[in-house]
Amino acid sequence: MNTRSQKLILPVVLAAGLLSLAPSPADATELGKSVLARAGSPWDEGRLIFNTRLRYEHADQDGLRAADAFTLRTRFGYETPSFEGFSALVEGEYNWVLNNGDFAVYPPPFNNGRTVIPDPETFALNRLFAAYADDGFSATVGRQGINLLNQRHIGTVGWRQNDQTYDAGRLRVTAVPDVVIDYTWNWQVNRIFGSKTPATPLRRLRTDNHFVNVLYTGMDDTTFGAYHYALRLRNLTAMSSDTTGLFVDGTHALNGDYTLLYRAEFGRQRDNRSTSGASYREDYYHLRLGARRAGFQAGIGYEELGGDGERAFQTPLATLHAFNGWADTFLTTPPDGLRDTYLWLAGPLGETKVNARFEARYFRAQYISQTYGHELGLLLTRPLTENLGALVKATRYKGREAAGPGVSADKTKIWIQFDFRL
Predict the structure, then answer these.
(1) pLDDT tens across 105-124, in order?
(2) Nearest-angstrom CA–CA distance, 248 and 222
(3) Is 148 helix (H, G, I), strand (E, B) or coil?
(4) DSSP code at position 164
């Protein structure tokens, strides 16, 4: 038995034991009721929050040692009932690393030659906010998760075990028919790397950010929107910027039970008074066209992030795993920009209750004639019970040798995951 196999025995045994000890959905619901009853709150007035995610992740990148991570993330919290429109929510989070030392949790230069899996052991206050809601108006103040639109610019990075959360005040106005106005002032971003990181910007960002979205939903199955994101990152000034954009996203019924899927988006990013380095202006395009029928869908997309050889269009607060490939090669846009042409196929696999998604991507620079590489990925998901689901996911990125550091290295990643929630 090799050393790696020996290291994985204990995490596998622990994971199996945890799954076997997990309560059934009925037992979990009764547990939640009993907890609330002891707290003096009727079950139908407050909401108990409990979810846990057990994950194995394998990551192998050329030039670095391969990494394996077994982690168990648990969240537990409570949302009060609404009283005169007011409510509150508190949620704690603990990510337990079951095989400590087999992977790097922080990006270069803190990875010591190890492939990075950014899921450190963390115990944190994930959310704590007060909320108010009335007809046509809602507000939240405090630590919260914020996912705006498709999360291309602002998101919680929900794929990782630790959320990215925002200390912020947020207002949503829906008093005008078919119009949604969403405004957020954000003074701190709590990042996914936890409280023990060797660099403050990895732990938290001190900010003076302003997020504005305006949506029009008056047409059936189509949303028109505009956004402006002013990022003033006081301890990460190289990523400060102002971004303004427009988009249309929707579906359209066709003959023969087919549905057309489409999205078109344009954005422009420029420096602001908080940006360090030279001034710049770069554009963003995203076009997507697909079709859906009887649960199956397929399509093609094109996304472009501009660059000028020195600076490029960046989205440092996005849920980046959802874009430009699951291998996470392009978490930072290269200085020469990025063109991502992709295909996808998705649908159920017969009567197995398994849903599959396949993606193929081809990456090129935007500013010069240079191919970065290509990537193939496969995702399988299956519900096991009403409260428990399983996921298997794999991706392979093949880089071009001439593409340069950080982009040319081949990558393989595999995930096996179980999610349980009340």
Answers:
(1) 999 899 989 999 999 999 99
(2) 7
(3) coil
(4) P
Phi then psi dihedrals of residue 30, to 5 deg: -65, -40
**Residue 236 DSSP label:** -
What whole-number distance in Å separates Cα of residue 121 and Cα of residue 115? 17
How many CB atoms are located within 10 Å of the residue 94 CB?
17
The 3-state DSSP composition of the chain as helix, strand, coil percent (nearest 5) reads 10, 50, 35
Q: Which two tokens stand for residue 173?
A: 């106005």
Distant-in-sequence, close-in-space partners of 31: CB < 8 Å, separation ≥ 6: 23
Q: What does the mean pLDDT of the chain come to?
A: 90
User: pLDDT tens, 9-22?
Assistant: 444 444 444 444 34
- The CA–CA distances, whole Å, from 111 to 16, 114, 145, 266, 398 equal 29, 5, 28, 36, 22
Largest Cα span, the chain: 67
Distance in angstroms (rounded) separating the CA atoms of residues 238 and 199: 15
User: Residue for token digits 């969240």?
Assistant: 75
* Cβ atoms < 10 Å from Cβ of 136: 11
Sequential DSSP letters for 46-83: SEEEEEEEEEEEEEEETTSB-EEEEEEEEEEEEEPPPB
In whole angstroms, give the CA distance from residue 389 to residue 346.
Answer: 18
**Sign of the dihedral through C-alpha 293, 298, 300, 305:** positive
Strand 296-305, strand 67-79: pairing? unpaired
Q: The tokens of 147 are what?
A: 């996912």
HEC readout, 322-341: HCCCCCCCCCCCCCCCEEEE
Structure pTM? Answer: 0.89
Q: How far, in whole angstroms, is CA 342 from its chain's centroid?
A: 19
